[in-house]
Specification:
By secondary structure, the chain is mainly alpha-helical. The protein has helices at 6-27, 39-66, 99-119, 126-145, 149-158, 160-170, 175-204, 209-215, 222-239, 248-255, 258-283, 285-314, 322-342, 346-377, 382-388, 394-397, 399-412, 419-432, 440-469, 486-504, 507-520, and strands at residues 76-84, 89-95. It contains 21 helices and two strands. A two-stranded antiparallel sheet has the order 1-2. The longest helix has 32 residues, at 346-377.
Length: 526
């Protein structure tokens, strides 16, 4: 831990948010004289992306090192400047134990994506690719750092444009319709969410998220809170995504380039659940208490639905796509996050926040691996990978690469000792003893259904490992596949290490989030 004064911390957080925006603009500028054109220019702009995202990662790590871990529930590195006085909208930034892990996760995944893209350049205009990547990072970091409702909305919407273009311009087959579907769902959800944010801000007389959280719904009637939670929840549920508002996700993941899928699953999905914890829980507690059982019902439906969809895709002869399967698995995993939030208990909400980070690490790793697998075999079709691509499993052809896929799969199914275990366990424990005022029998049903979903999850992920990694060596030698390369160790290694660290030492996250969660929940009856 290092010690920095308040002014330095404020400037550091501002730099974390602003640097990607400046870097995005710089990526579109003409190249310096003497740089050359063509491939040299593309390599230079991709190197620029690595440099900027690396600088943001370093700044975020310094911010984390200077964070006061004795009071993680307090807002730190806070800056508050008037922006639109007539509407009392302020440039209000700050970080606490809830947002800090998400800032670090975002900076890390974006840097790894930039590094991966430098070694495996995208097809198309490298300048546009880097500009969109950095703009996406800016919007995501801002979403987790801002403390004003209107600023939150602007940051939340900023990510739509770069993600649309990353899919539409740099994606694979079906990228156009998938990109439009992504924008259509998220924009419509955001319009409804904006109405809810305005209802809260205008009703309470302020858009300041800290002040609203401390008031715990004071000044807002039950009907106002109910309507606000419903509107805000719909917008956030689309981004999460919650069943049945999830149908944009499989198409977007299937068509997106590797880095697009990594950031979409690893970071963008977290914006929805973060908004529920940061905004809906503390600011509209009465409305959340009324709608929590419905949120729990949708959550466990998504858990089972996502698992059944994956089982249908993984069966032999179904022609399932591995990227699409992992996308559907995200619907199930994020269902556990929503279930934890729906319990309205510290145990459940802490589990939801832990599962958020675990899902970002593990699913980000899975999409990296699927992208690397497609580069080697030319396909993500499960039937092709199990048969026509050579017959022999990855264990026999690329043992380290195959072993890493198996590691990511068992981490995703929630193997004890890895990051995926703790979040789901805490969400289930929260459902076992939900907040006072909620129907315990209903939540026990949710618990049983979610636990059944964990069995289905284990089933389809073990089938993926069997079909992709195992198999008999054919009579004729299969085509050669390279094992893990040096740059892949660099891109995948940090995610593996953090998955193990969070699994063996869950307190590293729970000690951060719990004090902040305790301060958010007093307004909820329990």
């Amino acid at each position: 831990m290092i010690t920095l004064n308040d002014t330095t911390l404020q400037l550091l957080l501002v730099a974390v948010v602003v640097l990607p925006l400046l870097g995005s603009g710089a990526a579109l500028l003409p190249p310096p004289p003497g740089l050359g054109a063509g491939g040299d220019r593309d390599r230079a702009v991709l190197r620029h992306g690595v440099t900027v995202t690396g600088a943001v990662l370093v700044a975020t790590l310094v911010l984390a090192a200077a964070f006061d871990y004795d009071r993680p529930g307090a807002i730190q590195a806070e800056s508050d400047v008037s922006w639109i006085p007539a509407l009392d909208i302020r440039l209000h930034l700050g970080v606490d134990g809830i947002s800090l892990p998400l800032l670090v996760l975002t900076a890390l995944l974006t840097f790894l994506c930039a590094l991966y893209s430098y070694v495996r350049p995208p097809e198309g205009d490298a300048r546009a690719f880097v500009a969109f990547l950095l703009l996406l990072e800016c919007g995501t970091l801002a979403t987790f750092a801002v403390l004003d409702l209107m600023l939150f909305f602007l940051a939340f919407e900023t990510v739509l444009v770069p993600m649309y273009f990353l899919i539409a311009r740099f994606g694979g087959a079906g990228r156009g319709p998938a990109a439009w579907k992504f924008v259509l769902y998220t924009v419509l959800g955001s319009v409804v969410m904006l109405l809810g944010l305005l209802l809260v801000g205008l009703g309470a007389g302020t858009f300041d998220m800290v002040e609203l959280a401390e008031a715990h719904g004071a000044g807002l009637g039950h009907t106002t809170q109910l309507l606000a939670v419903l509107a805000i929840g719909i917008g956030l549920a689309v981004k999460t995504p919650m069943w049945p508002l999830h149908s944009w996700l499989p198409d977007a993941h299937t068509a997106a380039p590797t880095v697009g899928s990594v950031l979409l699953a690893g970071v963008l999905l977290k914006m929805g659940t973060y908004g529920l914890v940061r905004i809906a829980l503390p600011m509209t507690p009465d409305g959340m208490e009324t709608l929590a059982p419905y949120l729990g019902a949708f959550a466990v439906t998504g858990i089972v639905y996502g698992s059944l969809a994956c089982l249908a895709l993984v069966r032999e002869g179904a022609g399932g796509d591995l990227k699409r399967l992992i996308a559907y698995s995200s619907v199930g995993h994020m269902g556990f996050v929503l279930l934890g939030i729906a319990t309205l208990t510290p145990t459940g909400v802490n589990g939801a926040l832990f599962a958020n980070i675990a899902h970002g690490l593990i699913t980000g790793l899975l999409f990296f691996l699927v992208g690397a697998l497609k580069e080697r075999t030319g396909s993500t079709d499960l039937d092709g990978l199990a048969g026509a691509a050579g017959g022999a499993g990855l264990y026999g052809r690329t043992p380290r690469f195959g072993g890493l896929i198996a590691f990511a799969a068992v981490a995703s199914l929630g193997l004890p000792g890895l990051a995926g275990f703790w979040g789901e366990l805490l969400a289930l424990l929260g459902a076992y003893q939900p907040a006072d005022g909620l129907s315990r029998p209903a939540y026990l049903v949710f618990l049983v259904v979610a636990a059944f979903g964990t069995l289905l999850t284990a089933g389809y992920l073990l089938l993926v490992v069997r079909r992709v990694c195992m198999g008999d060596v054919p009579s004729e030698p299969p085509p050669h596949l390279p094992d893990l390369r040096v740059y892949e160790y660099a891109a995948f290694g940090p995610l593996v290490a953090l998955t193990v660290l969070a699994g063996l030492w869950p307190a590293v996250l729970l000690d951060l989030t719990d004090p902040a969660v305790q301060s958010l929940l007093p307004g909820v009856a329990r």
